[in-house]
Amino acid sequence: MKIEVTQEKLSKALNIVSRIANGRVTLPVLNNVLMRVDNKKVTLTTTNLDMAVVDYLPVSKSEDGVVTVPARLLAEFVANLPKGENIEISAKDTKVTIKAGKYSSVINGTLADDFPELPEINEKEAVVFKIGVDEFKTSINQVIIASSNDLTRPALTGVYFNTIDKELAVAATDGYRLAEKILVDKVESEVAAIVPTASLQEVMRSLSDDVDEIELSFSEDLVRFRMGEVEIISKLIDGSFPEYRKLFPTDNDIEVTLPKDELIRVTKLAALFAREVGGSITCETKKAGGFSVKSVANEFGENDSEIDTEVKVEGKVNLNSRFLIDALNAMDENKIVVTFSSKIAPVLIKNVKSKKYTHIIMPLNS
Amino acid sequence: MYDVWKNVLAEIEQKITPANFSTWFHGTSLVSADNGKVVVGVKNSFFVKQLRSRYFNDIKAALENNGVEVKTIDFEVVMTNKPKTKPREITYGDVKMHSIIEEKREKIKEASGHDSGLNSKYTLANFVVGSNNDLAVSAARNIIEKPGKSYNPFFLYGGSGLGKTHLIQAIGNEILKNNPKAKILYTPIAHFYSDFVDAVRNNKGKDFHKKFQKLDVLIIDDIQLIVGKEKSQEELFNVFNDLYQLNKQIIIASDRLPSQIKTMDERLASRLTWGGAFDLQLPKFEDKCAILKSRAEFSGIDIEDEAIEYIAENINTNIRDLESELSKISLLADVRGMTPLELIRSGAVNVRKPTKLHTVSARNIVDKVAKYYQLSVKEMCGKSRVAHIKTARQVAMFMLSKELGMSTTKIADEVGVKDHTTVMHGIKKIDSDIKLDFALRDQIEEIKERLYG
Fold first, then answer.
1. % of chain B residues with pLDDT over 70
2. Do B97 and A188 touch (CB under 8 A)?
3. Which of A137, A181, B29, B376 is deepest in the core (most CB within 10 A)?
4. Pick from A136, A179, A161, A184: nearest CA to A236
5. A184 contact residues in B (CB cutoff 8 A)
């Protein structure tokens, strides 16, 4: 096996594939990257058996062959080589030689036989969506914040891709808050699948600026993301995601329109005084004073800030300040609408104009 | 308990390295072994190829040593809840492809030559039979067996939310199951009217008549909303007579007996009960528990008997309310990570205790609707075309019609619109919208609750 490639291209590819070969699995070969050259097609592959990352590496010269090399070591070695250098990698049995100008090293690899074969997407039955990268990135960032890392409830440790009324929505919840974004507003096929948060984070990290479109294919218990030269295949989470739309409050009687940046500031101020009560702050509407955010720390003092806005119905609600700040940071527009109810009903936060993003937070019992 | 797979694993463990064993065999199981066809369960697709290519012989040998016949070994991903996908292909932009559902619907349409308007989720299997409805159900079974022969017309009546629509649609669906070529039409009376009016306007009155003559089963829902339009009542009367003489099954649902429907033509009223009138009553406590249990089973909700009894005890209005309470509680419980009973005990849900219905006036309804949408009565009953005000106005029309059975002309006066066709349109709009828009349905339920609560 032999390839010739520039330092930048190889380093970028190794950087993407080596992250999941991180020694968390017991099988040594899974710490390696599989390098395969098959009739000029060069692939770098890693897997942790929950997901696999494949990079199609464009090279100038190649000879067929296959070998596995410790991924981290190779990635770090290549990253430290001078930029612009041409790198030649050749393998004889399990000895892998890397040459770049004056630099040269030999790494002990292993035979490729031990490296597991990857599952394949059933192309015929797959449900395929193509989405603009910017839209995809923004949307996933907006919902992934609400996903849970509580492993006792696996269904909530992922992002739920589901089609409702011919729209493709992504949603995540940790039981205390929930975020939903309409990703594509007109789809013909249907899907309901939970993609592990960890896999999505890997997808997000692997998206480079020169890619415009990402292709998602769902089939059986797998999902495949294709973006430029990188392909990520992940298992889907076994579990049922709650029918979350029923949680969207419909009869919140208190509604205020607020400037986002101002609200973030007053929430952060209030959060300083809310540390000993687990971040609990009180939001209140008053016809005379507008919208206020309060917090009380018995030991240190208290905080009370107001934002002028039109108030039709008076009431108050207790919220976790961290959740509120997360939600606000995820909003697209500068003006947002917050609705709540004096009864214990979820607090709903939306953009003023765009209706695609919905964020709800369960209030805290006072 | 003796588990052959544990022995198999123990044997394989001795043959291969510990790292390989724990990586590849942890979480596997024996799904089935029938006549040499062995199915091994694995965690996810990443395991399938490796087990098949590297460990097939080890697994086969170990199984055979344990007395299991092996001809083939299949590997299957074991999931309690499989992700769902409905092909085919592609989306975004303008590429259109038939989904499987649409194809199926097309096929049914082809077989019977038209769209029945039935919703296939209503079946007799998921209709809970109790002392409150057993007579009606046994009549329904007769009809399914021999449509048009007994109980024709079949007249079903009872308060809202007791399952009228479910039962009559179930009859249609079962007949269709027995005879996929049967021509069945389910139509709420309001649709019958608007279709008729359209037909007459386009000079297609004859086609309209013919369309109905071809039917094997005609199902009309909510006939209490029949209004004093002589021409269309006449048409319905004719359709009725034609079908009746041809021994075609006619099924009618209403919230009261024909004699109590003031707007109905007397001749028609008397004919409707020729086949007998069957009523659906409020379920008793045991029936309510049974309904909730079947519902929970149907939707895969895990709920304790005690929680079911709690809901049954506290909801005294109708079956729709029972079901919505059940799904609300199970959903909240799911999200909060409690069981439904724990949730109820924690006091986080207030199962509403609706009081007995008392009479409401038209004024009352208009006020409540306006208040609910945070509008003044003047605003709501004005001429504004702003979407949410218009919707509020239509909800008011809808409720006046449903709750009080007022005529469209009177409703027009009440909400300040010029003529009754606007009202008819409004009612029809909400009627069809609430089938898809659950938020709207909930809003209307909420208003009702405020009205009667």
1. 89
2. yes
3. A181
4. A161
5. 91-92
Chosen from A31, A176, A246 to mutate, greatest number of chain B CBs within 10 A: A246
**DSSP string across A120-156:** ---TTT-EEEEEEHHHHHHHHHHHHTT----TTSGGG
Contact A235 B45 (CB under 8 A): yes
- Contact assignment for B44 to A221 by CB distance below 8 Å: yes
Distance separating alpha carbons of residues A96 and A222, to the nearest angstrom = 33
What is the distance between the alpha carbons of residues B198 and B232, in angstroms, rounded to a whole number? 11
Tell which wins on pLDDT, B363 or A71. Answer: A71
User: Which of B20, B44, B99 shows the shortest C-beta gap to A27?
Assistant: B20
Q: What are the tokens at B6?
A: 């544990």
Query: Do A189 and B88 count as a contact with CB atoms less than 8 A apart?
Result: yes
Strand order in the sheet with B184-188: B184-188, B217-221, B249-254, B154-157, B277-279
Contact assignment for B84 to A190 by CB distance below 8 Å:
yes
Instruction: Determine contact, residues A195/A225, Cβ cutoff 8 Å.
Output: no
Sorted by where each starts, the structural domains of chain A and their CATH numbers stand as 2-114 (3.10.150.10), 127-246 (3.10.150.10), 248-361 (3.10.150.10)
Q: What is the dihedral of CA A51, A356, A263, A270, to 10 degrees?
A: -40
pLDDT, tens only, A235-292: 999 888 988 998 898 888 999 999 999 999 999 999 988 887 788 899 999 988 889 9
Grade residue B179 by pLDDT with cuts at 50, 70 and 90. Answer: confident
Q: Is A318 helix (H, G, I), strand (E, B) or coil?
A: strand
**Residue A48's closest chain B neighbor by CA?**
B46
- The β-bridge partners of A193 are A161
Q: Is B411 helix (H, G, I), strand (E, B) or coil?
A: helix
Q: Return the exposure string of B82-118: e unless at least 16 CB atoms fall within 10 Å of the residue's CB, then b.
A: ebebbbbbbbbeeeeeebeeeeeeeebeeebeeebeb
Residue whose pair of structure tokens reads 């609400």 in the numeric block: A146
- Rounded Cα–Cα distance for residues B143 and B248 (Å): 11
Rounded mean pLDDT of A162-190? 91
Burial A143-176 (b: 16+ CB within 10 A, else e): bbbbbbeeeeeebbbbbbbbbeeeebbbbbbbbb
- Contact between A174 and B335 under an 8 Å Cβ cutoff? The reply is no
pLDDT tens per residue across span A48-72? 999 999 999 988 888 999 999 999 9
Taking CA–CA distances from B299, the nearest residue in chain A reads A243
The pTM of this model reads 0.56
Q: Which residues of A touch B86 (CB under 8 A)?
A: 127, 189-191
Model confidence at B358, in pLDDT bands (50, 70, 90)?
low
Q: How far is A92 from chain B (nearest CA, A)?
A: 24
Write down the ipTM of this complex: 0.76
Give the pair of three-digit tokens for residue B290. Answer: 């049974």
Distance between first and last Cα of chain A? 67
Compare CB distances from A188 to B80, B96, B439 and report the shortest one's residue: B96
